[in-house]
Amino acid sequence: MTSHYTNTVSAVYLLFCLFITSASSSSFIRQYTDDFNTNIQQENRARVNPIQGEAHYLHKHQQISSRDNELSASNTVTKGLRDRPPQSYSLKMESFNTLLKSTTERYETRPFSAAGYNWTLVVYPNGNKNDNGAGFLSLYVTIDNSYLPPHQEVYVDLRFYVFNRVEKKYFTIQGTNGWRFSFFKPMWGFSQVIPVSTFKEPRNGYLYDGDHCEFGVDVTIPSVFQTSELFSVAEKFQNPRFTWNIRGFSTLLGGTYYSDMFSVGGRNWNIQVNPSGRASGEGKALSMYLILNANETLRPYEKIYVRAKLRLVNQRFTFNNIERQIDHWFNGPGFGEAFGWGEHEFISLSDLRNPWKGFLVNDMLVAQVDFEAVSSTKYFPN
Ligand SMILES: *[C@@H]1O[C@H](CO)[C@@H](O)[C@H](O)[C@H]1NC(C)=O
Ligand SMILES: *[C@@H]1O[C@H](CO)[C@@H](O)[C@H](O)[C@H]1NC(C)=O
Predict the structure, then answer these.
(1) The CATH number of the domain covering residues in 49-220
(2) Is there a common fold for 49-220 and 229-380?
(3) Which residue ranges in the chain fall short of pLDDT 70?
(4) What ligand has the least distance to the C-alpha of 118?
(5) Cβ(161) to ligand 1 under 6 A?
(6) How confident is the model over 340-382, as pLDDT tens digits?
């Protein structure tokens, strides 16, 4: 026994040396050093599983690790109840008391396949003493590491289940962080799932119909998003202001007039003016809008957020501009609510034509926009 351990330790040490030579950052080395020390300590305490003889998935240098011992600020263990049964594997036992009373330390299921790997579910009826689990029910999952290259880590989300007959629901336990399974750490789980005394008390619902119970697990490999978007808002512009001097205003007929195109925040814009009004302003007010230039193209579902001030400049009384705050999402170029923003009744025609009001001077009207923010969205893949 002792010599076997020594051999394994040497093998592990050799692999460890390989890690050191290939690792470049010192923190990486330190991490493995720490793990390595834990490996040795835990290994010395490891026992052969009497119920199965030698579990071929678990090499002698296996590390037993549980979240209960490694709780960090960034990982929270969540316990709850749910209706849905386990997805990956279920283990029903009909003589749990026999196990509790026996010297059996652990029960390990046959391998099951999930997320592209083979796993076993491991139950410690009286807790895994090597992992601070004495007096608790401990649940673990082991990965079949026979094909795992030593450097490969398999990042896994685990959710363990214990059926509760009283609630008719599954008690669940999971962590916010995933587990990193590897050749050296093929077994992860919770050493303190439920106190054995709680578990054994029939009115709590975990042991029912004599001594039946059910355990389960979900093994999922979370996939990382393949598509994404990046939304950003620009608030500094080289030329945030565009001014449109509309000369010979009285010669304009009804209908729609556009300013020259101007560019702010990576997009082209126009000011639109309807001198005799449109929609609710028709015949009684001048309508004015900020619109996205007709040649701008937006991707499906793309929207542009704009914050700006749209105004008619008072050419006589500096502080009497008519100004409207724009705070709007543009859905595309063109007309209508989604495409432009402004007022059907920006200024009444009577105010506009009244020379004392100061908006028409020498037959010129001055429209202006000041941009404060324009958003853009990048999509990946493009
Ligand atoms: C899972 O187990 C099956 C049956 O033993 C085996 O054929 C397969 O290669 C294993 N898969 C992995 C990824 O270990
Ligand atoms: C859109 O582009 C075409 C071709 O460059 C141009 O003729 C047209 O005036 C543009 N439209 C607007 C509203 O700027």
Answers:
(1) 2.60.210.10
(2) yes
(3) 1-75, 333-339
(4) 1
(5) no
(6) 889 999 999 999 999 999 999 999 999 999 999 999 999 998 7
Q: What are the domain boundaries of the chain?
A: 1-45, 49-220, 229-380
CATH of domain 229-380: 2.60.210.10
* HEC assignment per residue over the chain: CHHHHHHHHHHHHHHHHHHHHHCCCHHHHHHHHHHHHHHHHHHHHCCCCCCCCCCCCCCCCCCEEECCCCCCCCCCEEEEEECCCCCCEEEEECCHHHHHHCCCCCEECCCEEECCEEEEEEEECCCCHHHCCCCEEEEEEEECHHHCCCCCEEEEEEEEEEEECCCCEEEEEEECCCEEEECCCCEEEEEEEEEHHHHHCHHHCCCECCCEEEEEEEEECCCCCCCEEEEEEECCCCCCEEEEEECCHHHCCCCCEECCCEEECCEEEEEEEECCCCHHHCCCEEEEEEEECCCCCCCCCCCEEEEEEEEECCCCCHHHCEEEEEEEEECCCCCCCCCEEEEEEEEEHHHHHCHHHCCCECCEEEEEEEEEEEEEEEEECC
Q: Is the CB of 294 under 6 A from ligand 2?
A: yes
